[in-house]
Amino acid sequence: MAELTFFAGTMDCGKSTLALQMDHNHRARGRVGLVFTRLDRAGEARLSSRLGLDVPAIEVTEDLDFWETVVGHLTAGGRVDHLICDEAQFYTPGQVEQLARVVDELDIEVFAFGITSDFRTELFPGSRRLIELADRTQALQVSALCWCGRRATHNARVVDGVMVVEGDQVVVGDTAPVEPGAAEPEVEYEVLCRRHHMRRMNSVAAQAAALSADVLPFDLDACPVPPPA
Q: Pfam families given for it (predicted)?
């Protein structure tokens, strides 16, 4: 019986690498699949890993219908044994429901990979619907690490070196260091443990605190918990 499986985690936990490996393993056994992604760092219609691997993919636009796409492929004489769906947090709830329909009515395996929550610690709509509908939700086993060495559990958005907790939910950025002297605000993302996410203490803030002679390493007041809004 086919299943809808959601592989979830933070950034840097290897979800895209696993998506590529899973597609390779299935194809090596003669199975045929379709690969989908949305807003990948490598550009449109590419599924890439930070390890340097990438493959062509179908770009998931907001008006893409998974059911119609798969049925159209089958009607044209194609074969589909599985779907690899990366960056699934960016899919609409309706698209997630279409994936569930592909599993239930066409008996095609769907493997979805995505980040659960955004930089505000709120669930992405696509991830929320996947958690609600998936046959299995599996946490990825590769643990991303916070700058302090603890297991990272939250994603942080950093603008010009400063962690922010307000703004649009989807802003494409990267995890590369901010370029010095950049004319426009640079958006990057960093994974943090809960403690440092709640204190809004990303690696840049931690480095600044460490360089200060007035702040002890264990002084929590260096980056206190922000007051309630």
A: TK (PF00265)
